[in-house]
Fold these 4 entries.
Entry 1:
Amino acid sequence: MDWNVVEESLGVRLPSDYKEFAEVYGGGTILDYFILCLMVPPHVEGLIEWWEDEMWDLRQFPDEVPRGYVIDQGSVNLLPWALTIDGDFCYLWMEPRQEPDRWWVVTRTRDMDWSVFEGSMVEFLEEVVAGRRRELWMPRDFPGEEPWFKTTAQYLADTDPGRADSTD
């Protein structure tokens, strides 16, 4: 995977664990509930548009966005990487911007309740899947005793077989 092209499109370097996870697993879903939307080819352009749309949505409620999270066009410091089927989001908090391996995870519910995880995306996923990290948006039984992951291609093959071939 040519990360230089991806990062140039984004205008920012990505954390090394993000890139390693994306190379091994790509995007997908945990329990068909928690959807990982990683910036990987060939979907980068569409995901950048999704990122811009999400920041536009947040700009509609500036009083609901905690201090320190910049959503102003041209200086955004939140990069969405996952969401739930209920409209809750996970972001990378891109601070300090030039040191992506130090970025933390920020989450918000659809009702604009925010929380911070002082660790990387992969550390957050490890804590969530192991059941050691709870977020307000998580159903009581999530992730359960045997959490599973489906790639985007597997998910589409299960739900929309005609689209499954177009994800690679």
Note: The mean pLDDT is 91.
Entry 2:
Amino acid sequence: MISSSADIDIDIYDEFIPTPAPWQLKPPLVMNYEVDKGPISYLRAFAIPVHISEMEAFVHRLFTKKRLNRMSMPTKMCYFTEMAMDYLPNNIYRLCRVCIPMPDSTLWEPWAIIFATNFHMCDMGLAENKDLIKEVQSIVRIKTNLAWYLMIGNDP
């Protein structure tokens, strides 16, 4: 299990991660790229964006100081993307990159923990599971609000 001895306090949510826009909180239409089948709807994920410092804090709870001293930040990020799912409930098994518009009109493309996608209707139902969301936020120690973000790549 994750140790609590090597905690790094992270409180960057208000400073860096923008509050989702109202349109990002509403479930999108089911994904559709064909005009003759209805309105175009791009692949989106209902997900928690994970800031690099949150990834680092999670990895710090897994390894000893001696091992951490030999790890670069990219290595810690790799460990997070490879190991985070092992600590989460079984129905949370996907990470992806998402595209988040920032207040200064730039785009941020963080890793995100996926709860649901709009790939098909039955997958979208997981976005309503508040207990599961709270459990994952507690395990990873992330307070960030979830929203429907555009997925980078096309692998639902």
Note: The chain is about 30% helix and 20% strand.
Entry 3:
Amino acid sequence: MSTHYDVVAEPEGRWWIVRVPSLEITGQARNLAEVDDVAAEIIGLWLDCPTSEITTTVTLKIPDSIQKILDKASTQEKEAEQLARDARTTRSAALHQLVDGGLTITDTAKLVKLSRQRVSQLITA
């Protein structure tokens, strides 16, 4: 019969802190590959049972300070994507004015230093 435990692993410096919240015990692993074994070992020692009777589900936790940075990066990426969409819309409007004003797509492309294909894409989008 095996007993299952949820485990949380979080990097701290060059180590991984391995926590078993339900037992309020903690261990440490040198790398992520060792986390399962360390978890089973500390649970086995705590409960005085063989590690073969222990199964775990490990959840990786990003440190809060790093998560804030990653969240900021995600926000910046979304903002950049929106800015890129806005720029395409603005560029498309400018190209439409040139083509609607009588320039050929080829001449418009040369004028704005884009390929003819790109100008065609932007004015048909």
Note: Strands lie at 3-12, 15-20, 25-29, 54-60.
Entry 4:
Amino acid sequence: MNKPLRCGSKSQTLTIDAPVRVEVKPESTVVKEGDAVEVQCSSDSNPPAHGYQWYNITGTLLSEERIYKLHNVSRHTKALYCAAINTEGHKNSTPAKISVEYAPEIKEGPACSVRAAGVACLCVVDSEPPPEITWLLQRGSDASAGTERHGSITLGTLRSTQRLTELTCQASNSRGNTSAVFTPPQSGRPSSAVRKTKMY
């Protein structure tokens, strides 16, 4: 006859140490330049996180709080990262993307040049969201226009087969508008531009 097998043991609690899992809220946000934005970091780990750190995209330490409020957001604020720390180590979050919107700015630089086929003008605009570029010409002038987008920079080009004495580049988006009056070069003189900006 088989005898039952008995095993004696003490009751034990098994603790599984798990790495940090980090979440940032909101994952992305749109804000006007100069405003404030608040982001918060949460984590799931065993043992629990005992510390948090916020970094910008260049790796600069910004805060050691779970909730971080960034004042006076600039267009150079692209993303923020949170690191949650426990006794097993630390883990970085995915980036909290911040889309900063601002009114168009017409950049300094050469405006117009005289060519054999006429006049070529370039209007360089920095803005988010992308601007609508409009050229105002002398009455009766004939010209062709186009735009190219490179990151936050929009290049507005205009070509005319006629000699223009003055023209205006207007750029506008939901955050404001700006304009520049271009004076194409005459008799070898360099071109000039006068800028006016309005923000909403």
Note: DSSP finds no helices and 17 strands in the chain.
